Each structure stands twice: as structure tokens, then as C-alpha cells.
């Protein structure tokens, strides 16, 4: 049996940790629960997920789903697959770090944990797992990622993207090859995944990279505009466009226009993004109040 190799992300963030220490981290979630308790806990977690705009609900959700993630792998839920449990935890930790943590060091730990769970979801695919074992890294193994796993790959990308962005330019540059490869693989299955998520990512990517490494503010603008066109109901794109592009280019009228539109927009009843939109509206309100301090 091929052991799970350390990914590039794990090597960079946990260079002082051993594989056994990583395994011990995972084992702390192992719990002996019955299949009935397993199903009940999944249902309870999904109910909490609806209110993830509240930090307390999100933390309770994470606790429920991590309990399920540590249960017997023989359990075959009729509610949610084990892959989906891992993927959802990857998304949950991204949200925790991006919207709920007040301290950057805590956010980075959340994104690190989110990447770990998303990676675990990818490893449920034995072909991918074996390819990583063969090549010793993610990039050449991405061709083995199945279409149904695009969600896990996206949240892996989102988590390491936020972690590397907040770890300095030199760290971000170490990820360029991997980031480009993941963007390409996701695009092959769904170029518009998660309400224009890939263009939203590229919009931020081209804005924060230095010009010598491929940064391009015009491309940043173009990708943000495309993302808003693809997924207009997702309010987070406008907030990010304002925070990343408008602020960097010192475009106060654009900044005000974007955050005002978010404040005045309905939260949207789509359960997949309603909670995120509520958080973005709250963020936009705060940005609008301090616009004169920002410019």
C-alpha cells in the first residue's frame, strides 16, 4: 500500500513535522461511533452548515464532520459520501480563515487544515494517490483527478492560495507551477466552477503577483469582470474586486460602486452561497464606512 506522500503544500508549511506527526493529527479525530450515530451526526452537521455565516455554527459543523471523518471507513452513508465529508471540511476551513478568524496566524492555520482535508478527499481516488506516490508531487498526477473531484481540487487551490498570498511573495512564487496546473485541470471540467471561481482566482492572482513573475493589473481587471458576468449572484467577487484591484489602482469611484452594490443587493436564496453572501454584505458595509481612510 502506497503511503500518503507529503504534498508541496505540506512540505512548505510543515517542514519541521514528520509524516507520523501528521498521522497523529488525523488520528485525534478518530472516534468509535455507531453507524446510526454517524448518519445522525452528518444530518446535524448539514443543518449547522446552513448557518455557517455565524462562526459558532461553522465551528460546530466542523466538529460534527471531523467526528464523521474519523469514524470507521466501512460506513457507507446514504446522506453524504466520505469524499464529500472531506471536501466540505476543506471548504469549511477556507471559510473559517477567510471570514471568521480575526488573527492572520489563525487564518493561516485554518487554510492549512482546509488544504489537508481537501487533499484527503483527492486521495480517496486510488489512481491519483498512486500517481502522487509515483511522481512525488501533485502536478503530474492531476490528470488522474476525476471530474467529480473538481470540488476538492478547487478548495485545495483556494486554501493554499490564501495561505501562500499571506506568507509573502517568495512563498507565493513557489506555488506558481502548481497553481497554474490546478487551474488548468479544473477548467477542463468546468471553466465556470463555483460562480466564476477560476476567473475570480485569476483576478486576484494577477493583481498580487509582481510584474516580473507575471503580475498584470489589466488581466486582473479582465478576469474579475468575466467572473462577475459568469456568476453575478455571488457577491464575493465584487468585494474582492474592490479590495484587490480598485484599492491597488487607487480607483475610489470603482471601489465605492462595487461595495455599494453589494450592500444594496439581496443575499440570494441559493443555499449554496446565501451564507457567503451574508458575510460579504457585512464586509462591504464595513468597507464602505471606512472608504475615506482607505483612499
Describe the fold and architecture.
With 295 residues, this protein is mainly alpha-helical. It has a domain at 33-80. The protein is built from 16 helices and no strands. The longest helix has 19 residues, at 82-100.
Brief synopsis:
The protein contains 16 helices and no strands. The chain is an all-alpha fold and 295 residues long. The chain has a domain of 48 residues.
Question: Topology of this protein?
Answer:
Blueprint: H1 8-13, H2 19-27, H3 35-49, H4 55-69, H5 82-100, H6 104-122, H7 126-135, H8 150-165, H9 169-174, H10 176-189, H11 193-208, H12 217-230, H13 236-248, H14 252-264, H15 274-289, H16 291-294
Helix content: 55-70%
* Oligomer category: single chain
Strand content: under 5%
Order of helices and strands: HHHHHHHHHHHHHHHH
> Biggest sheet: strands, sense, closure?
none
Number of distinct helices: 16
Radius of gyration: 19 Å
Q: Which ranges are low-confidence, i.e. pLDDT below 50, for 5 or more consecutive residues? A: 1-27
Shape assignment: globular
Structural class: mainly alpha
Mean pLDDT: 90
Could you give the count of β-strands? 0
User: End-to-end distance, in Å?
Assistant: 57 Å
Task: List descriptors.
single chain; 295 residues; mainly alpha; 16 helices; 0% strand; globular
